[in-house]
Amino acid sequence: MALRFSYVYGPYSYHKGSVIPEFFRQIRRGRELTIYGDGEQTRDFLYVADVCQAIGAALEADLPWGQAIQLGTGEETTINSLLRLLRGVVGEAQFPVVVYASPRPGEVGRNFAAIDQARRFLHFHPQTPLAEGLQETWKWFCPGNRSEPHDGGK
Asked: Do the bridges between strand 45-47 and strand 7-9 make them parallel or antiparallel, or are there none, so unpaired?
């Protein structure tokens, strides 16, 4: 079986290059956030604890041979909506300037997972609302909650 993950985020993601850890790193550094495009592009953000639950279910499931299963929430979130949630998590005082730049070549406009197979075979129902997962992730990124990872001065 193959499990295909959507945009996984959560604690311990400091070195990931995806949008949520990148934005949290920039916020911690007091740097502006750059949105490539108009911010209406969508992603399907899946909290790491939900991924772990699905992997555990997959280990126990009797799946058809060669079945590929998408893991996500099945919900589209625009980058602009993500920014609003991040602002609520971080607080207005700490939130940096947001800059919109030209879309990068190959930028995907819409991306979300069809999780029908995960529901059918794994009885998978993601439990973590995005706002809650972002709050937990931000706690991990905050100083004093953990030792600071070496980021090479980036």
From this structure: parallel
- % of residues, the chain, pLDDT over 90: 75
Expressed as residue numbers, the domain containing 119 is 2-141
Mean predicted lDDT score pLDDT of the chain: 90
Partner residues linked to 95 by β-bridges: none
Task: Decide if pLDDT at 146 tops 90.
Answer: no
The H or E element that residue 141 is part of is helix 130-141
**Does residue 147 form part of some domain?**
no
How many domains does the chain contain in total?
A: 1
Q: How confident is the model at residue 106 (pLDDT cuts 50, 70, 90)?
A: confident
Helix spans in 30-129 (H): 48-60, 79-90, 116-122
Distance between CA atoms of 123 and 127, rounded to whole angstroms? 12
**Residue closest to 24 by CA, chosen among 34, 14, 36:** 14
Mean pLDDT to the nearest integer, 83-87:
97
Question: What is the torsion angle, in degrees rounded to the nearest 10, for the CA atoms of residue 35, residue 6, residue 74 and residue 71?
Answer: -170
